[in-house]
Amino acid sequence: MEVVTTVQEMRQAVARARAAGARIGFVPTMGALHEGHGALVDASVAECDVTVVSIFVNPLQFGPAEDFHKYPRDLEADKAFCQARGVDFIFAPSEKEMYPEPPRAFVEVEELTAGLCGAFRPGHFRGVTTVVTKLFHIVMPDVAYFGQKDYQQLAVIRRMVDDLNFPVEIRGVPTVREADGLAMSSRNRYLNPEERRAATALYRGLTAAKALLEQGERNADRVRQRVREELAKEPLVREQYVEVVDADDLSQVSYIDGRVAVAVAAFVGTTRLIDNIVFDPSAERTE
Amino acid sequence: MEVVTTVQEMRQAVARARAAGARIGFVPTMGALHEGHGALVDASVAECDVTVVSIFVNPLQFGPAEDFHKYPRDLEADKAFCQARGVDFIFAPSEKEMYPEPPRAFVEVEELTAGLCGAFRPGHFRGVTTVVTKLFHIVMPDVAYFGQKDYQQLAVIRRMVDDLNFPVEIRGVPTVREADGLAMSSRNRYLNPEERRAATALYRGLTAAKALLEQGERNADRVRQRVREELAKEPLVREQYVEVVDADDLSQVSYIDGRVAVAVAAFVGTTRLIDNIVFDPSAERTE
Fold first, then answer.
1. The model's pTM
2. Both B191 and B158 in a single domain?
3. Which of B137, B159, B166 is opposite residue A104, by nearest beta carbon?
4. B181 located within any domain
5. Residue A287: pLDDT above 70?
6. Domain around B203
C-alpha cells in the first residue's frame, strides 16, 4: 500500500494502474475509518483491481458552527485499517493541496439537496459535490462506493453523476450497524456512555417504522409519528427531522406507493446523528 | 470523419483512440462554424492526434429573451467545414441526448461570472460551465480549445478546470477578425449591411484604446472613455458595457499596472456583439 499526498502523484499512480489494464475502485472518506467504511473498501477490493481510499476532512462541507475542527483525525490508525483490508493507495492530501486558492468553482445539485439534511446544513451538499467532483477528476475511478447510511448524499451523488455524465459507476453499500443497531459513524465516538445508549433510539424508531410498513401501513405521517414516539422516549435525543421521501428524487411522500426512504436526523447530546431505511412496497422488502 | 450523435458512441470512439495512444483535442462549439472556429480546429489538428468538434446549441446558456430559437444551425455546412480541416469526429447530440431529464446538477463559477457579460446574462455562464463539464466528461480530451473572443468564458473555464481538477489542458486561441477588424462570430450573420458596417465600431474603439495604452495611459476610466467615444459615433450601436478588468480574475481595475482585458459588449440593431483586447504593460504588447 502506498500513501500519496499530492494530486500529481495520485494522477500518475492511477495512470500507471490504468495503463496496465486495471479497473480502479474508489472510496472517498473523511478518515476515522470504521466497519462502515470497511464494507465500502471490501466491495471495492472484491470488484476492482486497484482500490484507492481518499482521506480528507473537507472544510467546504462543514458549516461555521459545525464540527470541522474537532472531527476525528487518526491517519495512522486509518493506514493500518486500509492496509489490512487490501487497499492499494491512500490519497491523503493537505487542505492546501486540495484548495490552493479560495475556491470559486462549485458543483451544486438542486432540489434533492433542499430537504432532509440539506435544510439544516446549508452549503453542506455543495461542499460534498464539489469535493467529490475534484476527487473523481484526480482519481478517475471506474467505480466509486458510497454508504447508504448517508442516504441523501448517495442520491445527490447519483444525480450529479447522471446529469454531468461523469464516467464513473456509483455503488451504494448497505449500512453497517453495531450489535444494538446503531449505524456506524465516525461521529459515534463523540458520544459518552449514556448518550451511546440513548443513540439506539434512531434505529429503534426506524425498526418500528419498518414493522408498520411491513404490516401494510401506507400513510407517511403515521410512519413518521411511529419513529417520533421512539425518539421521544429518550430525553437525551432531540429530533431534527423524520421524513418519508421518494427513494430517488427525495421529494416528500404522503401516501406510500413506491420505493421510499424513511430518514431521521437527531441530536444526541451535542452530537448530530442520521440514519435511514429504504422500503419498497412492491418488493415488500426493507433495506 | 465520423459524425456521432450519442454519448455512448462518443465515449467508445474516444476510448478506442486513447487505447491506441492518441492525444485527444476538443473544440466545443454551437455550430455555425466560421474562421474563428477554424483557428481552434487548426490548433487542435496541429497539436493532437485526434480532434473532436462538438456542435450543440445549448439551451441552458440562453436566457428566456435571448436568441436560442433563431441561433443559426447548419449541420451540413459545418460537416463540410470540419471535414476540410481534418477533424476526426463531430459530436452532434440532440437536446434529449444531452438533457434526458430536467437538469438538477450544475457547475457554477462565482465572482468571475458576476461582471461583464455575466451581469447582463444571468445564468449564462452556469449554462456554459455545466455543458462544458458534461462535454469534458463525455469526450475526456487531453486538450480543449477556446477562443479569446469570448474572453470571460475562457477565464471562467480556466478557473473551473483549475478549481475542480479537470484532467484537461485549456488553450486560448487569438480572436480571428474580418478584414475590417470585426471579430468573427456566428451572430454576425444576423447583421444587415448597414449594421455590419456600424459593427466595426467595437474594434475601432478597442484599437483606439490600444493606442492610448501603448502611449502609456494607465487610467482605466480614460481608456474606457476612449472606447465609448468610438461607439457613440455610430447611431446603430448601443453600448452595454465597456470595462477594464484584471486579465485573470476579471476584477475591475482603475489603475493599470498588470495584465488587463479591455472588454466591450454592444447591441448593433438587435444583435448583441462582444469583443476585447488584452494588454500587458510589462510586455508592452497587446493581443
1. 0.96
2. no
3. B159
4. no
5. no
6. 186-286
